[in-house]
Write a structure and sequence with these properties.
Order of helices and strands: HEHHEHEHEHHEEHH
Bound molecules: farnesyl diphosphate
Oligomer: single chain
Number of helices: 9
Strand content: 5-15%
Distance between the termini: 35 Å
CATH architecture: 3-Layer(aba) Sandwich
CATH topology: Undecaprenyl pyrophosphate synthetase
Helix content: 40-55%
CATH class: Alpha Beta
Largest sheet: 6 strands, parallel
Radius of gyration: 19 Å
Strand order of the largest sheet: 3-4-2-1-5-6
CATH superfamily: Decaprenyl diphosphate synthase-like
Length: 248
């Protein structure tokens, strides 16, 4: 256990941490290397973050790996990312099982290349009995896609008279999202100095604490993850109440 990890208060852990992994391309460019070099090194940060989250005792870790907008990148980069995902899944499933981590995915997975889709489903299937932590990869995900999908499903339920508009409440909407069954993230981390949410979990982060770091994703280590948790633990989460109300 690292020195920083010892400073984490186990009684006040976030249950769900979501991460926007950003800056692979810029990190590589600064070293005079191609963008794909950045993605390859980003895999090590995925590993470190997953390990750190499991060791600390986080229940859910959700990583934004590929957005619906990322298809606009050069075809070679998209292909390299998809291949990297297949390779990583193939290599890491054993480690996930050893560490009792369940793999999950959110997003419009049907659009992924067949190989990526197959290895993802295989990974999800092979780790489905694990209990320690759920690692969710957001792939071909965007919040607006997710909310549109949810609205369509609810409209269909109304059209077929299964529900009436008056039945719609927050719980019903939660159930129609791809994160159904998970708690909302208490903490959202974004790397690389960008101060944006980029269409990620917009409904779910209504009350999340936001943590931004200048580190590029390939520089994000276990210690950086610990720093984010420690920073989160210093904050007071009020959910619209006053500080005084929280003390009573
Ligand atoms: C952001 O950097 C990173 C991505 C869009 C992809 C993240 C993918 C990985 C870390 C590799 C594989 C993932 C898994 C889950 C095994 P960027 O390219 O947007 O960087 P930039 O903003 O500097 O261009």
């Amino acid at each position: 256990m690292s020195e920083l990890m010892k400073n984490i208060d186990e009684s006040r852990l976030p249950s769900h941490v979501a991460v926007i992994m950003d800056g692979n391309g810029r990190w590589a460019k600064n070293l005079g290397k191609p963008r794909v070099f950045g993605h390859k090194n980003g895999v090590q940060s995925v590993r470190e973050t997953t390990e750190a989250a499991a060791e600390i005792g986080i229940d859910y870790l959700t990583l934004y790996a590929f957005s619906t907008e990322n298809w606009r990148r050069p075809r070679l980069e998209v292909n390299a990312l998809m291949t990297l995902l297949v390779e990583t899944l193939r290599k890491e499933i054993k480690t996930l099982n050893k560490n009792d981590i369940k793999l999950n995915a959110i997003g419009d997975l049907s659009y992924l290349p067949k190989k990526t889709h197959d290895s993802l489903l295989q990974g999800i299937e092979n780790t489905s009995n694990n209990k320690r932590m759920t690692l969710t990869l957001a792939l071909n995900y965007s919040s607006r896609w997710e909310l549109t999908h949810a609205m369509k499903e609810i409209s269909e339920d109304i059209a077929s008279s299964r529900i009436s508009p008056a039945d719609i409440d927050e719980a019903m909407i939660n159930n129609k999202l791809s994160t159904s069954g998970m708690p909302d993230p208490e903490l959202l981390i974004r790397t690389s100095g960008e101060l944006r949410i980029s269409n990620f979990l917009l409904w779910q982060i209504a009350y999340s604490e936001l943590y931004f770091t200048d580190k590029y994703w390939p520089e994000f280590t276990k210690d950086e993850f610990c720093k984010a948790i420690i920073d989160y633990q210093k904050r007071e989460r009020r959910f619209g109440k006053t500080s005084e109300q929280l003390k009573t």
